[in-house]
């Protein structure tokens, strides 16, 4: 990740509908959502949603895959992770105690499932 890619991603997320769209895509990982369903869930006209999805895709925050007649969009979690790491690189000038609260908040939000023993 370089500064230009990070700025492109941050600019894409700085608009309300795109921010909401990215959050929606993250909630629907790993299956993704069809473009029409995203538009319906966010109550956005489909042509407007197409423009927002294109911006997120160009910024590297979303991926599109054609499935039959639908285009399924997914959040690019790896790209978002790279952007986050880029933003936090050399966090606080190497003073880990300052960054500890941020790192704690970045731990997985969903605990791993316990294995089912038969």
From TrEMBL:
The keyword Transcription applies. Residues 1-95 form the HTH arsR-type domain. Keywords: DNA-binding, Transcription, Transcription regulation. InterPro entries: ArsR-like_HTH, HTH_ArsR_DNA-bd_dom, Metal_resp_trans_reg, WH-like_DNA-bd_sf, WH_DNA-bd_sf. Signal peptide: none annotated. It comes from the Bacteria. This is ArsR/SmtB family transcription factor. It comes from Flaviflagellibacter deserti.
């Amino acid at each position: 990740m370089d500064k230009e890619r990070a700025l492109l991603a941050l600019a894409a997320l700085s608009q309300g509908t795109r921010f909401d769209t990215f959050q929606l895509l993250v909630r629907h990982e790993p299956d993704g959502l069809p473009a029409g369903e995203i538009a319906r869930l966010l109550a956005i006209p489909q042509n407007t949603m197409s423009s927002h999805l294109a911006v997120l895709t160009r910024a590297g925050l979303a991926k599109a895959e054609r499935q039959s007649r639908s285009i399924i969009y997914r959040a690019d979690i790896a790209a978002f992770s790279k952007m986050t790491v880029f933003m936090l690189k050399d966090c606080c000038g190497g003073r880990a105690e300052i960054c500890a609260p941020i790192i704690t908040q970045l731990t997985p939000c969903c605990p791993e499932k316990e294995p089912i023993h038969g």
